[in-house]
Amino acid sequence: MMRLTGSASLMTRGSILAALLLFGLTAGSSRATIIIAAGNTPQANDENVLLDRNMTGTSVLGVTNQTRRSVRFSSSTQTLAEFGSGQARIEATAGGSQVPLNNISINVPNGTFESLIFNAFVGGQVGGSGSLTISVADNVSPSPTTLTSTIANGSNFFTITSDAVQSILSVNLSFSPASSGFTDLRQVRIGGAAVAPVPEPSTMAAALSGIACLSLAGFRKLRRRSAEAKA
User: Fold this and answer.
1) How far is CA 11 from CA 20, 92, 179, 222, in A?
2) Which residues on neighbouring strands pair with residue 134, listed in sequence order?
């Protein structure tokens, strides 16, 4: 078995410590568990999402009723409109008229959340039955968790939860056939909404400075030992 000299051992220990510091700054935990289930299953820290700003656009905002966290609803293909009076809901519009809603994403701006409940409602003259694909992105898994379910006339509740390992970044709802959609999104509740912490510049600087010092000290000692061996 090859033995490491003192200088090489120091360099190895420094490299390992530097790698661990970088890993701690950038890596997440192990495998995440996201559960998507049909039905309305209240969670301990749920908050209602209020839609009282009456916004229209490809991105509109709601706010949680207790912590007052912003919740963003956006679509890459449709114009959204929120209505706070009566049954609070989000619809899709085109040319000033309601159209079936077939693409919408939900997230907390610059943050994460732990659970989501919503009703992809079908009723009235707009929207119909079809397949709803729910795609959940989190801060651990390399690919989203998905579920495709048939929805029909009436209420179509879904509950999304995460475990203690990870947090949810966003939820996307897409409908098939794309020519149709559900009537509106309503009765939205979100749990554990929080703004993601941003490392303080001083913290990042201290960590990078420590890595640099470890590497430099090891390099200098290695050069000194090499010079002594040649003398």
Assistant:
1) 14, 60, 62, 8
2) 147, 173
Alpha carbons 135 and 157: distance in angstroms, whole number: 15
Look at the pTM and tell me if it is higher than 0.90.
no
CB neighbour burial string for 62-73, b if at least 16 within 10 angstroms, e if fewer: bbbeeeebbbbb
Give the C-alpha separation, 211 to 223, whole Å: 19
Q: Are 88 and 160 in contact (CB under 8 A)?
A: no
Q: Is residue 104 within 8 Å of residue 171, measured between CB atoms? A: no
Instruction: Please report, to the nearest 10 degrees, the dihedral formed by the alpha carbons of residues 118, 177, 182, 99 taken in order.
Output: 130
Domain 31-195 architecture? Sandwich (2.60)
Tell me the Ramachandran region of residue 169: left when phi exceeds 0, alpha when psi lies from -120 to 50, beta otherwise.
alpha
Ranges of each domain in the chain: 31-195, 199-231
Tens digits of residue pLDDT in 66-90: 999 999 999 999 999 999 988 899 9
- Mapped onto helix, strand or coil, the DSSP state of residue 22 is helix
